Amino acid sequence: MKVGKIIKVSGPLVVAEGMDEANVYDVVQVSDNRLVGEIIEMRGDRASIQVYEETTGIGPGDPVYTTGEPLSVELGPGLLEAMFDGIQRPLEEFRKLSGDFLTRGTKVDNLNREKKWHFVPTAKVGDKVIGGDIIGTVQETPLILHKIMVPIGMSGEITSITEGMFTIIEDICVLDGTQKIQMLQKWPVRKGRPFKKKLNPDVPLLTGQRVIDTFFPVAKGGTAAIPGPFGSGKTVVQHQLAKWADTEIVVYVGCGERGNEMTDVLMEFPEIIDPATGESLMKRTVLIANTSNMPVAAREASIYTGITIAEYFRDMGYSVAIMADSTSRWAEALREMSGRLEEMPGDEGYPAYLASRAAAFYERAGKVICNGSDDREGAITVIGAVSPPGGDISEPVSQATLRIVKVFWGLDHALSYKRHFPAINWLNSYTLYQTKMDHWMAENIDPEFAKNRAKAMTLLQEEAQLQEIVRLVGRDSLSYEDQLKLEATKSIREDYLQQNAFHEIDTFCSLQKQNKMLKLILKFYDLGVKAIEKGVYLKSIEKMPVREKIARSKYIEEAHLEQIDEIAQQLEADMNKLIEEGGILDA
Ligand code: ADP
Fold this sequence. Notes:
Layout (H helix, E strand, L loop, with lengths): L2 E8 L2 E5 L8 E5 L4 E9 L2 E6 L11 E8 L1 E4 L7 E2 L6 H8 L18 E5 L6 E3 L3 E6 L5 E5 L5 E7 L2 E3 L4 E5 L3 E4 L2 E4 L8 E3 L10 H6 L7 E5 L6 H11 L4 E7 L3 H10 L16 E6 L5 H20 L3 E7 L1 H14 L13 H9 L3 E4 L7 E10 L9 H9 L2 E2 L4 H5 L12 E2 L2 H11 L4 H25 L6 H18 L13 H23 L4 H5 L3 H6 L10 H19 L7
Parallel strand pairs: 8-21, 19-24, 19-25, 20-21, 20-22, 22-24
Antiparallel strand pairs: 1-2, 1-6, 2-5, 3-4, 3-6, 4-5, 7-17, 9-11, 9-14, 10-13, 11-12, 13-15, 15-16, 18-23, 23-24, 25-26
């Protein structure tokens, strides 16, 4: 370990000289308190170091110890249910050791080294294995089977492998008589874990949320962004995704501005129940939280810590969703460090590399064929929240994000004010996975799904124009057809797009149900148009009692979807009756 000397301290940034043997992204220990830091820039023998702990009391002349190792995370059983800080120190153990405020230089192992796990081999002596091959499993939580893989770069013939209770640092398997394998692995956070092949993300991540699944789906292995103006329902959307999205593992990275934001997350998440099993959602979740008393630098590292853990579970063949909330706070940390490095500021003070750094994070999403001989598939879907000041997405972080991600769910303050939830604006949201998802829907749900989806969206867009006219000259100036259109779009908005996260049934809506509901609403419109052509009064159509049933179809249980078909039949019969009677029903 070589020792350098501090020549300057500026908040979380420390400059040290005599560091000629160190490299960028090496971890160093700063001062005799051994604060954790990472080299972010080298000029000659001078290293600029971002320090992940409070630097007060540190000054020029203090030593800096090099480790020669990059900033890494520990991977193995013990990740699930855990809450870590931005550089993977376990918050619970820390609190026990140093009280609520993290004491500087406290050393805790990232993963528990005393706990014993039941390792069950799935490979046997004589098997030839390569990096990424699964050699055994640990039932880490009731929900997740942790697959133990041969570390990347190792290969050989298994000469010994044992079932039993082991800690993560005990040997469980030996290759070629000499290479020992433990459950614990390490991986540098800034380097994506390798895979065999990237696949086209062509299967939707099903969320049970109608506005997302029907209109703005994200593919498994895809990327999405969600802006979060305060009070617009961002937390509820994220919780709904964590609960209902059909992924096995959830990694939640919280970069809160204020301390209480993160405390909320730390309190709330453990209380979320996994609907499929009734267990706590934490049993398939890894939480990374930057509490407010941690310096900004840790925020910068946290998203890489999170995505590396996500990649590790992906490599087991799982589908993982990672939520970063919010990447704006991450970008602010980047800006602060860049300022202290005295780099040339770009747009609004953010460094010019903001966009490439953000891209480097989102690019680690994907559906892949994992390393190993069995060609299993894994996926990481990245959902990044941005919190533009004042909700104005023309600012640099939102813009940099939007250029990378393929889906945008535009949370809208005006909608949440009207209590339209989820407040995702259908006019400015988009998905670039539409064609592929349409294809999947046609094969798996209904060949007509894409057509219906497109039709409903066209109606909603036309509604926006019609509303403009109504505002100017009043509704009565519209043709009957257009007035009917407004009735239909009101139904799409209120009966379809609005979805109550807190209603026992409405909280989740299967694709089968979405398909039937959408068809039902469109049927009302199509039949209505025909009826008007045949001279039926608009008023009579508007007053049809069956419309109440259409509105309530969202509360029909998944097990009784045939009731939606029955409503459709009644709608058809009632409309035919109106036409036969010459349209005057209770006129
Ligand atoms: P944010 O995180 O953006 O500040 P929240 O997610 O906490 O906002 O949402 C604010 C409030 O809006 C919630 O407490 C809830 O009452 C309401 N809300 C948000 N989304 C929904 C939803 N899908 N269904 C019902 N109510 C919702």
